[in-house]
Amino acid sequence: MTDDLTPHAPLRVIVAGGGVAALETVLALRDLAGDRVATSVLAPAPDYVDRPMTVREPFAFAPARRYTLATLVADMDADLVVDRLAWVDPGTRIVHTTGGQALSYDILVLAMGARLYKRFPHAQTIDDRILDDLFHGLVQDIEGGYVQSVAFVVPERMAWPLPIYELALMMAERAYDTSAQLKITIVTPEDAPLAVFGAGVSQVMQDLLAEAGISLVPRAQADVPSARQVVLKPQNTTIEVDRVVALPELGGPAVRGLPGAAHGFIPVDPYGRVKGVEHVYAAGDATDYPVKHGGIAAQQADTVARTIAAGAGADVKPEPLRAEIHGLLLTGRRPRYFSARAAGAQGFESRVTDTPTWSPPTKVAARYLSEFLQRQDAADVGHST
Ligand SMILES: Cc1cc2nc3c(=O)[nH]c(=O)nc-3n(C[C@H](O)[C@H](O)[C@H](O)COP(=O)(O)OP(=O)(O)OC[C@H]3O[C@@H](n4cnc5c(N)ncnc54)[C@H](O)[C@@H]3O)c2cc1C
Question: If you count Cβ atoms within 10 Å of the first and of the last residue's Cβ in the chain, which end, N or C, has fewer?
Answer without folding.
Answer: C
